[in-house]
Amino acid sequence: MSQDSNNITPRFCHRTRTVETAPFERYKTMPSSASSTLPVSQPQAAVALPDRTTGPGQLPTFRLNMMRGGYLFMAVGLMIVKWPLLLQASSMPVFEGVVVCILTAMSLLAFLGLRYPLGMLPILLFETMWKVLWLAIVALPHLIGNDMDAATATMLFNVLFVVPILAVTPWGYAWKRYVMTRGERWAPGA
C-alpha cells in the first residue's frame, strides 16, 4: 500500500475557466438579407451613473441616511412595544386593538423606508402630524390647566419620542414636493 508521493492524484480536479476578454468580439458584423455586413459598435466601458440624490429637488446621501436612521428608530421602537401586543389585539377594547394594528403597520412601512427613504416620506410626516396634533390639542390644555392624569402623562412621555423624527424629516424637500409642486392630473389629458 505504499505509494510514491509524486504519483498521488487528487480526487477533485480544479478546472480553470477561460474568460473571453472581449465577449462581443464574435458579433462585430451582423449578416443582413442583402448578404452584406453591417458593423456593430464595440461595447463601451462601464460609465459611472450619476448619483440621483444630488440633482435639483433631490437630497444628498447623508440626508437620506439621516432619514433611514429615523425610520429605523421608529420601526424598531414600534416593533418592541407594539408587535408583542398584536396577538392580543382581539381581546383588547376596539380602539386599543385598532391602534396596535395601525402602529404595527406603520412599523412595517418604516422598515420599508430604510430602502426607499424619499418614497416613504409620508410615514414620517404622518408620525409627526398626529403627535404634534395630540400635543397641541390634548396635552397642552392639560399642562396649562395643571390637571394631567397618569395615563395622559405616560402618553405625553411616549409622544415626545417624535423629536428625532422631527430632526431627520427633510422639511424643505417635503414643502417643495407636497405643497409647491403641481399635483397629478385629475382627468385624462389634463
What are the salient characteristics of this protein?
190 residues; mainly alpha; two-stranded antiparallel ribbon; 51% helix; globular
List the helices and strands and how they pair.
Blueprint: E1 29-31, E2 37-39, H1 61-86, H2 94-113, H3 121-145, H4 150-159, H5 163-168, H6 171-180
Antiparallel strand pairs: 1-2
What would your notes on this structure say?
The chain is mostly helical. The termini are far apart. 9% of the residues are buried. Helix content is 51%, strand content 3%. A two-stranded antiparallel ribbon has the order 1-2. The chain has six helices and two strands. A hairpin with a 5-residue loop joins strand 1 and strand 2.
Strand content: under 5%
Q: Please report the total strand number as a whole number.
A: 2
Report the end-to-end length measured between terminal Cα atoms. Answer: 89 Å
Class from helix and strand fractions: mainly alpha
DSSP helical segment count: 6
**Secondary-structure element series:** EEHHHHHH
Q: What proportion of the residues is helical, as a percent range?
A: 40-55%
Backbone shape: globular
Strand order of the largest sheet: 1-2
**Which sheet architecture does the biggest sheet show?**
2 strands, antiparallel
Average pLDDT number: 81
Low-confidence stretches: 23-27, 49-55
Radius of gyration: 30 Å
Report a brief summary of the structure.
It contains 6 helices and 2 strands, in the order ββαααααα.
